[in-house]
Design brief:
Two copies of one chain form a homodimer.
Chain A lengths: L1 H19 L6 H8 L3 H7 L3 H19 L10 H17 L1 H5 L1 H7 L1 H27 L7 H24 L7 H16 L5 H11 L5
Helix pairs in contact in A: 1-2, 1-4, 4-5, 4-8, 5-10, 7-8, 8-9, 9-10
C-alpha cells in the first residue's frame, strides 16, 4: 500500500511538472491534488528535489532501453528511425526535464551527474550506430565527421522542444512539431548517405513535414 | 548626464546578468553596485524587465549587423566562417539571454516577439547563404535539405552553450567550447560540400578542436 502511494506521487508529479512546469509546482500542490496530507507525502519523499531525482532515474532507465544497437548485425536506417521515435516519445513523456534542463542540472549535483551520464551514453550509442553505417558503406563519413554529427544529433534532439518554443511555435502543434524533430535529426544524416538511401530518406520524410 | 547613467545601468546589468544569471540579479543589486539610489534607477527604467527588454533590443540590432549576406557576389565559405565568428561572439556577449531563453521568452510577451523575429530573420539569412552556395555549385543540396539545415544551424548555434553545460563541460573551458561550437556548425555544412571544399573545411577545422 505504501509503495502504491509512492508510485501515485511520482506519476502525478510527472503529469503536473509537464503541464505547469516544474518550478511552478510545490509539494503542497502535489499533496492537494492527490488528496493526501503533506506529512504523508514527506513520509515517501524528503522534498521536491527527491521526487525530481526519482523521475530522472525513471527517465534514465527508459532511455537506456532505447539506446540499444543490434548486436548480431549492422544497424540499418530503419533501426535509426525506430530508435528516434522511441527516444522522442520518451523525451515527450518527460518533457519537464528538457524544458528546464539547464536550471535543474545547475541547481542539483545529482541531477547534473545523471544527465551528463545520459548524454555520454547516448553519444556513445549514436557514434556506434553511425560507425556501423559507415562500415556497411551506407554512409560515407570520416571519423571526425561521425563524432561531430553524433554531437549535433544529441543537441538537436535535446533542445528541439525548446527551440520550437522560442521561435514562437503554437503549443497546440506540439505533437506535429515532435515529428518534425525526428525529421530534423534524419536530415543531419541524409547528406552522408549513398544516393539511393538519401533519396529513400527524403521519400519517407514526406510523411514528417506536413 | 541622465543618458550616461542610463547606459551605465544597461552596461552593468549585462555584466551582472551574464555573471550571475538574470534570475539571481535584482534592480537593488544593480543600484547597489552602481552606487546610485533605487529611485534613480527607477527614473530610467520601470523595472528589471524594462532593462532586459533594452538589452534584447541591443542584442537584436547587433545580430542584424551580423546577418548580412554579400550583395554583389555569391557567398563563399570564408564569408560563413566570418559570420559564424561574429554571431558566436555576439551570443557570448549576451549569454544571459541564451542561458535563460525559454524562461525569459515565456514570461514576457515583448521578449517572445523579439526573439521570434531574430530567429526568423536569421533563418532567412542562413537559407539565402546556403542557396547561394548551391547555385555556385560549391554545395549539393535540395531545397528541402537546405531549409532543414538552416534550421539545424540555428538550433545548434542557439543552444550550444546550454548543451555544453548540461553535458558537464568545465566552466573554465567556455572560450574553447565556443570555438568548438563554430566547428559543430561547420560540420553541419561539410557533408554537402564538393570534395575539395569538404577537405578544405577539415583542414581549417583542425584549429578549432584542440
Amino acid at each position: 500500500m505504501a509503495s502504491k502511494t509512492r508510485d501515485r506521487i511520482l506519476d502525478l508529479s510527472l503529469v503536473m511538472f509537464n503541464e505547469r512546469g516544474e518550478p511552478n509546482v510545490t509539494t503542497n500542490h502535489i499533496a492537494d491534488e492527490l488528496e493526501i496530507s503533506p506529512g504523508n507525502l514527506y513520509y515517501h519523499f524528503r522534498n521536491k528535489d527527491d521526487i525530481v531525482e526519482h523521475l530522472f532515474a525513471r527517465y534514465e532507465s527508459r532511455m537506456d532501453t532505447v539506446m540499444v544497437a543490434p548486436e548480431d548485425r549492422a544497424p540499418t536506417l530503419e533501426d535509426i528511425w525506430l530508435q528516434l521515435h522511441l527516444a522522442f516519445e520518451c523525451m515527450w513523456d518527460y518533457r519537464f526535464i528538457l524544458r528546464d534542463l539547464v536550471d535543474l542540472t545547475s541547481r542539483n549535483r545529482k541531477l547534473r551527474l545523471h544527465y551528463a551520464r545520459i548524454i555520454k551514453r547516448a553519444q556513445q550509442n549514436v557514434t556506434d550506430v553511425l560507425l556501423g553505417l559507415a562500415r556497411a558503406e551506407v554512409m560515407r563519413a570520416s571519423r571526425q565527421e561521425i563524432e561531430a554529427t553524433a554531437t549535433n544529433i544529441l543537441l538537436v534532439a535535446t533542445f528541439w522542444m525548446n527551440f520550437n518554443q522560442v521561435r514562437g511555435a503554437q503549443p497546440e502543434r506540439a505533437a506535429q512539431d515532435l515529428t518534425r524533430g525526428i525529421f530534423q535529426v534524419m536530415m543531419l544524416l541524409a547528406p552522408f548517405l549513398r544516393d539511393t538511401e538519401r533519396l529513400h530518406i527524403h521519400t519517407l520524410a514526406q510523411a514528417y513535414v506536413k
